[in-house]
Amino acid sequence: MEKLRIDPEKIACARQAAGQIAADVDRYIGERTTVAVERTVLRLMGVDGVDAEGVPLPNVVVDHLEEKGVLGLGAAYWVVNALIQDGGSPQKMAERVAAGRLDLTELPREEEETLRRRGEELAREGLNRVRARRIQRDRLVGEWGEGRQPYLYVIVATGDIYEDAIQGKSAARQGADIVAVIRSTGQSLIDYVPYGATREGYGGTYATQENFRIMRKALDEAGEEVGRYIQLCNYCSGLCMPEIAAMGALERLDVMLNDALYGILFRDINMQRTLIDQAFSRMINGYAGIMINTGEDNYLTTADAVESAHTVLASQFINEQFARLSGLLPAQMGLGHAFEINPDLEDGFLLELAQAQLSRQIFPEAPLKYMPPTKYMTGNIFKGHIQDAMFNLVSILTGQGVQLLGMMTEAMHTPHIHDRKLAIENAQYIFNNARHLGEEIQYRPGGRIEGRAEEVLERALSMLEEVEKIGLFQALERGMLADVKRSITGGKGLTGVLTRETGYYNPFEEELRRRVGLPQREGWFHERGLHAD
């Protein structure tokens, strides 16, 4: 992999600056929680379903506590307190709250040690369910095997989950390794998770736990048929980011789009809300053995791919550090980038190759997610197919991990089954014929490719050092990423951010940190001389 002679000291300095940026944000978000985090705690306890008006029960309970002005202690505090006194299950308790038969804040408060013991039991039970799904995945991969990297990643997006299941199985038979169900347009901006199977959606299908279950079952059937484990991907972002992470963990999803910055930049979700939610969602993804995909490729849809290439690399460094703080292993960090340089630019292929090889060398263990050309696809399907072929060639040359296949009908319509088949055949042909080409070539020292890589790294380092000085929030306000400016107090979802009060309790965060070896946050147990470990 060490084909480009790039300065290891600059890489180390960039990683150090990104680490400080992430640590500063982590200290800030460690004092806060969100309504989505608290709803996730309830879902991990087993709370599911809707009330008589169709409102999800996790929302009902969290809204109840927020209206009482006590959510700053954490939903778990009040729920565990009620369960100790009233018995029953978290589900039954939530149903009683929804029916107006229980006010959680009116019950006497139990001793802290008693709360802790019961809370730890619930956390262990919930996370053991997640662990069982991870063990099941490992068993199936061992029995059936899986595709070789770069994984062939394709999308289905009909709006009807039952049609998605049919198309997903078809894609598996055609050779896909990962099937992603694009989420319905706008779902990232609603502050609840729809319930049950859905048969309509605009530009995609709603992400619900039942939809996850249906797709997982379909792909397992296809995997057994073709003798290859098929990975399922969905979108873990937006205002319900950690809830979707929990649902995906419980239904054995394998890949989740989970970026620390995407929602801020491209959906105008408040930066505080997104950064708090991503920390907890990544803890869940990490423990579930889920590979995350980050969204740096989207930067190049609003900014020029040549001029702004360094912002992609800088963001990869930052996303890597946020992932590390949440306990994700490098093998789970599908850091994103894209093949988006104007095809009319002379030597554009060399610049694309430089960027891909640079990312590969800096993040050697990460299953990098490489995105196809989209910005300059014109509807000329013949030229588009060639653009996709060049993209596939860069991928196999540089050892990318996840290849989201380009469709020659990009910019025309949602791909048909036969469009997807042609895309898979294109990638299979190139990957097979050039499988070991990267091992046989070297880049000319001081040549165009190496010089471009050095330039991108140098500019990324300079940017990271500036962000380290001013802080990530200020950098986002200045529009340093994707040429998009956001305010720390603007965007959607800010009202769902709360300060953790003295006594705040989240047994799932405590248990996750213990299980993956992360340090405990200073908080409820530490303030009282108790130790979660």
Automatic annotation (TrEMBL):
A Pfam family assignment: Lys-AminoMut_A
InterPro entries (alphabetical): Cbl-dep_enz_cat, Lys-AminoMut_A, Lys-AminoMut_asu_sf
Gene Ontology terms for molecular function: catalytic activity; cobalamin binding
Domain D-Lysine 5,6-aminomutase alpha subunit: 4-510
Stated name of the protein: D-lysine 5,6-aminomutase subunit alpha
Organism whose genome encodes this protein: Paludifilum halophilum
Top-level taxonomy: Bacteria, Bacillati, Bacillota, Bacilli, Bacillales
